[in-house]
Amino acid sequence: MTPPRVLTVAGSDSGGGAGIQADLKTMLALGVHGMSVVTAVTAQNSLGVQGAWPLPVDVVRAQYRSVVDDIGVRAVKTGMLASAELVEAVAELLAATDAPAVVDPVGVSKHGDSLLAASALASVRTRLLPVATVATPNLDEVAQLTGVRVGSEGELREAAAAVLEFGPRWVVVKGGHLAGDAVDLLTDGTEEHWLRSPRLENRHTHGTGCTLASAIAAQLAKGRSVPEAVRAAKEYVTGAIAAGFALGAGIGPVDHGWALGVRECGEREE
User: Fold this and answer.
1) CB distance 79 to 23 below 8 Å
2) Which of 30, 40, 49, 174 could cysteine-pair with 218, CB 3.0–4.6 Å?
3) pTM (predicted TM-score)
């Protein structure tokens, strides 16, 4: 029996904690078949991003068509797209694909390294977000895209409304950078779903954004509604953060294998 198929269109993280690598680990953990379109190659580790090289648009388009035209997809997730040309090409591909699209508008890495050219912001606003079923910006990305800066939970509504103006059907504004509980707001402008989890004292959180977006896409591919998919994805990411582990000299990754009862750091859950 063929499992649901999910395609990630994102950059490669050579350290294995975020990007394509995190997406495919998440998809495996959640029982869907992950496929990939690599948009950029990064030299990246626990300390930051030492270099990034976007792939040519023709290469990205060829990967996408190769997968979608033969294997097909039930959901697509986008991550690092790097340039305006790549953003516009991927937006065009998504618009012609009959599957929900989860857009993670990646602007900077966990360490603050830029992963999106300033010249690409307009294309994200006008081309990519309008074709998104769900957009998943964090607070820095909200500020980058809309100019709205959030300092408290009460300001999440304003941030969500500002992102929705660009056309996604739903938006999840991730409030993980605020004080207190980790609170995210999911809304389509009419319905509101407040997703809360205790703040975990674990600095090893590399890959959380990629992991959440991929988990949402996996749940949508299984046929869940957007609110159901986002809630299930939040639960998965919370568990992955709790199990995050040290790697290298900096910020380690979340543990994508926790839900399978197998720790990536070599321990097995009893």
Assistant:
1) yes
2) 30
3) 0.95
